[in-house]
Amino acid sequence: MDIQQADNGKKGKFFVEINGKPEAEMTYVYAGKHTIIIDHTALNDALRGEGVGYKLVEAAVSFARETELKINPLCPFAHAAFKKHAEYQDVLIK
């Protein structure tokens, strides 16, 4: 499954398309130069339980590491993922 990213410098999203249709997305907004806020995660019901939501969070974590950003996971799903995965703590805003 290919995770894609769209980013305009103010906001962005990580998403999955299947047959040209958006099936999963996690959106974020920039909060200053060094932080993104994950504000929403949505999945098509058929993808629930397949780990797609966690793959979206992993993509955001990789992006944050590559660009030296911190993440504020306001979205309940992303917040829970950060609590569950200690390896994400390096990009979690304190």
From TrEMBL:
Keywords from the UniProt entry: Acyltransferase, Transferase
Name under which the protein is recorded: Acyl-CoA acyltransferase
Alphabetized GO MF terms: acyltransferase activity
Superkingdom of source: Bacteria
Annotated source species: Siansivirga zeaxanthinifaciens CC-SAMT-1
Stored SUPFAM superfamilies: Acyl-CoA N-acyltransferases (Nat)
All copies of domain N-acetyltransferase, residue ranges: 6-93
Signal peptide: none
InterPro entries in the record: Acyl_CoA_acyltransferase, Gcn5-rel_NAT, GNAT_YJDJ
Pfam assignment, any one: Acetyltransf_CG
